[in-house]
Amino acid sequence: MFADQQKNLIKKYLTLLIQEFIKDPQHQNITIIFKDYLGEKIAAYTKPRQWDEIIWTIINGKKVPGSEKTTHFYSYEIGFLNEYENEEWRAAIVHEFTHLYFFTIGKHEHQHDDQFYSNMERFENWLDENQGLIPRTDKSHDWDQHIDANKRDERRKKICPSCGKKETPYNTVNECFSCHQNKKEFNRLVNLIKNSCNLTELESNYLTVKASSLYRENNKVVLDRLYQNCKNSFSVNVNHVVAPTIEKPTIKNPPNEKSLIWLIIIGGFFLIFIIIYQHIIKKKKKTN
Fold this sequence. Notes:
Layout: H1 3-21, E1 30-35, E2 44-55, E3 58-59, E4 62-63, E5 69-81, H2 88-104, H3 114-131, H4 149-156, E6 158-159, E7 166-167, H5 177-194, H6 199-210, H7 217-239, H8 257-287
Parallel strand pairs: 1-5
Antiparallel strand pairs: 2-5, 3-4, 6-7
Helix pairs in contact: 1-2, 2-3, 5-6, 5-7, 6-7
């Protein structure tokens, strides 16, 4: 990787870590510099600086007596080499950011102990996931500054608990890089099945799972069982779908027999009234 690309990525990744884990604006005054040489066996450094200033309330150009207030200010300088070999630049980023993080939370006298390196691993895991980075393959020298010499030696070579090989450990549980990647891929396959939204998608994802090189032995048993459980769940949901109810048109009850009789009687009276009225009118005309 060219030196300029390294520098740009160092700035980018360090800025992302600062934005995520250092929220206090007081501790965001950070300068990043690059040099050809930082010192013997020094790959990077972080220098904190703190100073106090007295702030006064000023009215009409004059300090108000008793209004003085001491304010703390912080700044940090982080130095990197102009160019690194292999993946050293990525290790330098998370190592120096871990120093910066401890300075910002008030731990100015921190050491390269278990707490330091567990936080360093936490920050790197976040960065890898956030940026979709392939994890570093060699982390054997990450603990070279550990205060415990025995742990420095342990870190360089360990028996991987997953495959039983003596490999460079990838993480704090001493898994080798290959086993760590396999575990990560297996979890992806599990989530692929679990996150299927319907039966069609489940079948499609299951074909992808079966095509994986990890679909074997115990993994195969676990994945098949998970697939069957999800399939059964979708089948149950389909069988219990309630058919929509269709409302029947309501028909008003026809008038009953008593109502009809009353209507006939009233109609009859009305008809008789009209006949009588017409008869009276005709009789008056004849009289006239």
